[in-house]
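Dear colleague,

Thank you for sharing your sequence with our group. We've completed the structure prediction you requested, and as agreed, I am returning the results in plain text so they can be pasted directly into your records. Please verify that the sequence below matches your submission; if there's any discrepancy, let me know and we will rerun it promptly.
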Amino acid sequence: MKQAVEREMHATPAPVAVTAKAAALHNVIFCFTVVQPTTEQEQILTWQLTMQVGIFTCDAIAVYSTRAFNMGNVKATVVNVNMQQGGNQGIHSAPVSAAVWGKVIGSMKFRNHEWTVKVEPYTAFLPWRLRTIVKSFDENQTQTGPGVYLKNCNTHLDSPIEVLSRRAVQTYAKKFLGPQLARVEADTIGQRFLSEDGWLKSVLQDLQIAALPTSNLLPVSSCTATSEFDASQCRPGFVAFYPLKTAQVYGDCLTNATTR
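Please find the predicted structure tokens below.
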């Protein structure tokens, strides 16, 4: 698995750093995930770190959780939020999502990267493919005005992978930093039974952040998955596959996705 992944990853052309602007292209994507500690999510993420796959091949990463824990040299950032506010949605609820995005904005890491990417722990993710996609966009479209986000299932936004341009995150930050951030987090309590992707989509629409349709972030079967994704269906061309809940099927998926 690892050899197949490394072969494709290193075959992807790197940007030529002939100017300061070109050099900055090396900081293309900042990735983060949200983990429920002492669960299968923590186990699969620890495996990804060991194998150096998934978000751990992004240009910068962050891990958020409701409890402090370490994975090797990676320390989870604690998000202080009442999980009961999310009802049955739990960590995928609107209140938790609002608190996590508040932490993302507060860390300022997103400012150093063209794109911010939120990835589920169970998502098999190939960051170099996403770099190729976002580099194909015109910056005058993605990094001006209120910014953009990518429709990962062509028609809507789903939580396995959420991709926002830096300008989009800045738009969110300007609207909700400081006292206003506390207000938006409080407002989401009234939407506590709204799912994470439903909440984020409503926020992006309110801020008039444009949606760019894409057809190769997730296969259709990942968009509608109600059980574990069939690793044999992981194939070249897509950026991510969801859900893959064990190291074995995650590894099989990456092998199949990078085998030519």
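Summary note from our side: Residues 14-24, 178-186, 188-193 have pLDDT under 50 and may be disordered.

Kind regards,
the structure core
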